[in-house]
Structures are given as structure tokens and as C-alpha cells.
Amino acid sequence: MDLELRHLRVLCALADAGSVGRAASDLGYSQPAVSAQLQRIERHFGQALFERGTMGVRPTSYGAEVVVRARDILARAEALAHGPATGPPGTRRALRVAATNSPMLSGMVSRLRTVLPDRALVVSSVYSSSRIVELLEDGRVDAAIAADYPGMELRHSAAVTHRGIVTEPTFVALPSRHRLGRCAQVSLADLAEDAWFLTPDDGAGWPGVFYAACAAAGFTPVAVHEFLGDQLQLQSMIADGLGVSVVQPTLRPTRDVVIRPLAGTPLWCRYVLAWRRDAVGEEETEALFHSATAAYRELVGRSPHLKTWASRAWSVTET
Fold first, then answer.
1. pLDDT per position as a tens digit, 108-118
2. Cα(131)–Cα(31) distance, rounded to whole angstroms?
3. Strands 244-247 and 56-59: what pairing?
4. CA 226 – CA 160 distance, rounded (Å)
5. Bridging pattern class, strands 171-175 and 244-247
6. What is the mean pLDDT of each run of 10 residues along the chain (319 residues)?
7. Quick check: helix, strand or coil at residue 83?
């Protein structure tokens, strides 16, 4: 079988919907047709791309990689169909999007290129959430993904509004040979003697919330290295035993670095979609929001340590 764009759309629909039935409805196909398509696609790749369960389907580790590549191919195909972004003035309005350090950005942008083909996306990376607010206020960006923390909601003028995408726990990355590396969860107090890698001030409350959590746990970090680089470089330094770091729970572990939840979940971070009221319409706002949430669900599907934490947290809540 030769892969076609329609096959890639089936994979992306399954990843977004989380069930064969919903994907079939979104695509306008019958459920048996989507199931048969998936079986043929998996035979082409020679292995399962989705795990089936009573709650629906979710990508396997390999399947998640295939879906990411499929989204990129579909976005490129869509861009070709609408011609070059540098066409005659006024043919495609720019949608200027800024984003803080969030792994959901790539998946969100891939989806936006498909659902908003008439907008030319201009994406910029801006670490500081307070700087993102400034750019929105000044009209230099139209929408953004920013971060804030419990009790410290993002502040801006009436020209800007925001909507929460997800509030996630903060985990910790340790060398796999760390004394606590085999623990299911790690107490912040047990890391009192470790050196830390911390990202700099984001203008929204970090790293103040980290130091407050350490103080509540009864210690002040003995050594802090300010770090704002790529995750591979960070994990390399952690693997070498140079320190530990609080990380996003969707960060993938490596052979030499493990990701663990913090006992009691003392740190949380919320990602928000913020936009200018006069620049982004209701339909575009919904496209931005749903693209971001779908991208985050995909990340969760590739993060077994986060799913394990969530199942335990829900179990305690229900009890």
C-alpha cells in the first residue's frame, strides 16, 4: 500500500479524537471504514501505531512520532494548495503568535496550519510571560501561549483576554543513578542538598514559587545554576550528575535521566491562551484553543510517568 494524504488524515483524526467512533464522525466516514484503514496503515508500518482500550485509542510511542510527521506533511500540503505565503498583498492575513517555553507549540502550529489555511502564521518564541503581555498590549502579536501560577493569574489590560489551557503539576528530573532515582515519587525536602538548574525570572512568578515551595519544605537550595537552553542540553548536564531540575511533566526521560513527580505536588503551572480582542475573532480563538488542547493531549499520550501520576491522583481524589 502506498501512503496517501487521506491515510495521514485518518491517523491525525484518531490522535485528536481518542476513539475510532469520534474520528469516523469527524472525517465523515463509517467506524468500520476507519478501523479497516487503520489496520492497513499499521500493516504498512509493520507495527501498531495505536493502543486499543476500553476508553478508546491512543498513539503508541512509535505512533506518536508518525502522527507528528503526518501533521507536518499535511500542513505542507495545505500550504502548497493555498500558494506561497509571499503572494499578492492581502491574500493571506498574518496571525502573529508568541509562545513561552511550551512543548505543545509544535503540535498546535501544525494543527493551525490545517484549520486556519487563510491565515499566514508568524510564530515567535518569547520566554517571559510578562514580555508576552507587553507584546499583546502593544499590538505586536495577536495571540500567545503564556504561563502563570496558582494565585498569580496573568495580569493585563481589557484589550487582552485569556483562557486556561491546562494546569499541570511540576515534576523533577534526576540522573538515573541518583539515590532517589528508583522512587515512584520524590519529596522536595529530600533534594535539599542537591544543586538545581532553574530557568530565569519569567515575570509571572517564577522562580519565586519554587523558592517558596523550598521554604515550605524547610530548606534553601544550596546551589542554583540559571539555565535557559534546549532540553537535550539540560538532560545531558543532569545525566552527568551536575544537578537536578524541576521540569514539565511531559518531558521525555532518557536512558540516563528519570522524570519523577514531587510528593504532595507543591508546584503547579498553568498554560493560558491570551489574545487581543480586536485582532482575533471567535472562530480563530476556538481554533487556537482546540489546537493547543489537542497538542497537549498528544503530549500526555507520550508521557507514561504523567499518566501514572494522574491515575494515582484521581484515585486519591475519588477515595
1. 998 998 899 88
2. 46
3. unpaired
4. 31
5. antiparallel
6. 85 84 82 91 92 81 82 70 50 85 88 88 90 94 95 93 95 97 96 95 95 97 86 90 95 92 96 95 93 91 86 49
7. coil
Torsion of CA 118, 140, 289, 18, to 10 degrees: 70
Which grid cell is 249? 511533566
Residue with cell 490545517: 114
DSSP 3-state assignment of 1? coil
β-strand partners of 247: 171
- The alpha-helical segments, DSSP class H, found in the chain are 5-17, 20-27, 31-45, 61-81, 105-115, 129-137, 208-216, 231-239, 282-301, 304-318
Q: CA–CA separation, 301 vs 22, rounded Å?
A: 17
**Residue 129 Cα distances to 46, 150, 204, 206, 295, angstroms:** 44, 15, 6, 10, 20
How would you label 104-135 residue by residue, b for 16+ Cβ within 10 Å and e otherwise?
bbbbbbbbbbbebeebbbeeeebbbbbbbbeb
Query: In the chain, helix, strand, coil percent, each to 5?
Result: 40, 25, 35
Query: Quick check: 69 and 103 in contact, CB under 8 A?
Result: no
Contact 127, 227 (CB under 8 A): no
pLDDT at 214: 97
pLDDT for 317 equals 34
Domains belonging to the chain, first-starting first, are 5-80 (1.10.10.10), 91-166+269-318 (3.40.190.10), 171-266 (3.40.190.10)
Count of alpha carbons within 13 angstroms of residue 313, beta-carbon side: 14
